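Forwarding the complex inputs:
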Amino acid sequence: MTEPTKRRDVVITGIGVVSALGDGRDATWQGLVTPEAGQDLIDCETFKPFCYYKPIEVDLSTQIPKRGDLRQMELWQRLGVYAAGRALDDAGLKDDAARLDTLDMIVAAGGGERDLEVDHGAMQLVERRGAPDAELNEFLATNLRPTLFLTQLPNLLAGNISIVHGVMGSSRTFMGEELSGADALRIAHSRIAAGQSDITLVGGAYNGARPDVFLLFALTGQIWRGTPGSVWQRKDEGGGFVLGSGGAFLVLESADHAEARGATPIARLGHVSTDRTRRRDGQALDSLTRQWQTMRSNTDGRTLGVVSGATGGEPATGIERAFLAKLSDERGGIPVRAPASRTGHLMEAECLLNVALAAIMLDQGTMSPADPHSDVETGDQSAIDTALVTCLGNWRGEGLVLLDKAPR
Amino acid sequence: MTTRQLIDPHGRSIVSVTGMGLTTSLGRGVEDTWRRLAAGDSGIRRIKRFETENLKTQIAGTVPEFDDDAKSLPERSEIIALQVAEEAAAAAALGIDGDFPGPLFLAMPPIEFEWTIRHDLAAKLNETEALDYIKLTTVADQAPEVYRHMFELASISETLAERFGTKGSPISLTTACASGATAIQLAVEALRRGEIEAALVVATDASVNPETMVRFNMLSALSTQNDPPEQASKPFCKNRDGFVISEGAAALVLETREHALARGATELGVLAGVGDKADGFHRTRSNPDGKSIIAAMQNALSDAGVTPDDIDHINAHGTSTPENDKMESFGAAAVFGERAAHIPLTSNKSMIGHTISAAGAIEAVVTLKTLAEGRIPPTINYDLPDPAIELDVVGNTARDANMQVALSSSFGFGGQNTCLVAAREPLA
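Prediction (whole assembly, two chains):
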């Protein structure tokens, strides 16, 4: 086997994060330390019995100035393009046209938003009126909107980022629910570490107001009905996640590249690993344990905290609990926080959101306050200099991300 | 291949192709499909699977076995993905069946709900009730087991990973019409990083359904020349009016050459270069300056360590839309200069239509086969050449040529431009 290319350090130099906790690094930290922040965004009426988090209000025009561009996007793309712009701003790249022209990009995206009026009308037509197929064709041809088609293509989030922000290096879009975000981060990290890219924008976005997605995950039995509460407290009623709305984008670059252009690292991205198991006989727990073994030596003598990707869905949250218990035993206690209790589940963007939150905590030097309703989250604010982020898919995929405080 | 060269001109592992699989509207299997492509056969027909009345476009390159079948997009896409992966894995004979020693890279279409599931659930509700998604959730627990994960985006990769025992987290990706090329690119990059020694690349798309056709019709992207169907796709012709949407899948087993030679594998060719460049001009159109198309081609050439003079053949994206063929020839002229008019170029889409997410990988397989056979399959329906396009289009009948290196291009909505350089043998 060929020797792996010499690896370079990878740092995070920009974060754009929009969630129920806030918009941007500072507001998000304020949201993390304010227990009631974002609770007013929970909407349990519109799609009863399902609750979801409405998006926090942001002035989209600050990142997407052209109204024509906004009209070409549905909410998930708007949130994503907005968060991507905030990340580029944070990294000091917004006006650097030359760098943007070669900036690489990996986006994690789900299926686009359905036109509910058209879908519901079509269902009524076909299932209730028994209309012939020719009539359905006519209905679709009359009622579908061409712009909406483009807002439904997963790769058009990246496409819109190219158009609005001028990010025009390589552009790739991963799909596949939660792990697509973790894998986007893994591959962006590997490419930079191996010298295949100097700087990459990685991110994803989600709109939680998705009745079709409520059905998608009602089929798998993983969506929560009722008020959210803590992700750690849903198991007795079968578990389930509550969808959130927001976006998370990170600018990753080689430490040398950041230094050369005078960018200040927010955190160092040490390890990103992912796996897929069949989830039989403790395979997922074994995989997480194996992945942890490959990175644990980098945490010796460090003060570690865990930002858990637990979203309340089962069996994933149960697997997570078991892994965290093992980790806690090994280290004699460890602070854990599961932000999904506060933000809802951002699906493809979930792992990226949690990595962003971990970087923000590292930058602050401390974990956010513990969830008072959870036996998993203990201790109040704890100082940390290293963070482990767990990224489990509700159906498939196990991943771990290790970050540490940026060298200053 | 006679040399034992293992490292490419940039000092990286050479990436060999040791297995290939193909399913298109022309049939199953690389050999059978190749024979029909070389003969200039068309797979484009009137759609039989569903009612086409009130659709502007009524033709497609559907996979024949789905003609009388009510399967949904993810089911069809999965079935042909399994077929091509079986063929490629068997050809490569790598490891034990079901224990493939590398990861999966899957190019696939986006998945959304379809009538099958809505219909089954609606039937379980009281007939007087109005229908919406929330209503359907009340009977979700009564849905047939087959639907449980079918509409999750990880469903096809999960089936493939389970069947072939690929390692690690599978990558499911989309870069629209460039997806197949992007899947190959990601695998090549991972092999060069030394993370893996083998990869299974699969690209599949069976999106032909009324809704998809209506959507593409709204963008004026599809040909509406329904009669006769086999003459609708006419890349680089003056009277071209859009692409013909099609179904198909391709798979490639990629290995570091060192790994392939060490186990005595038969090499089918080399993936020498990959290159991409995004375009930020418009959601569905390239910048008229052609910069990103040109850069994607140049990036692939320089990644392979070759110059424009080294390219013996171009397997074009050639969709038969007015926009693509114009911009693609503009790009080729910029990159190859006067030689552009003398490099034999062809579009497989003239025969099998545009397989969207699968096209880049299908055309990579055909390109490798073209190099190995020394025969370029024709661009059929090349009867009224567009006088503004000065390319050496291999029109209507196959042409024999001695070729070493070829460029295969893919361009997609969302500013996606990805090009591959394939070679018969490693490049010195």
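Chain B has a mean pLDDT of 96.
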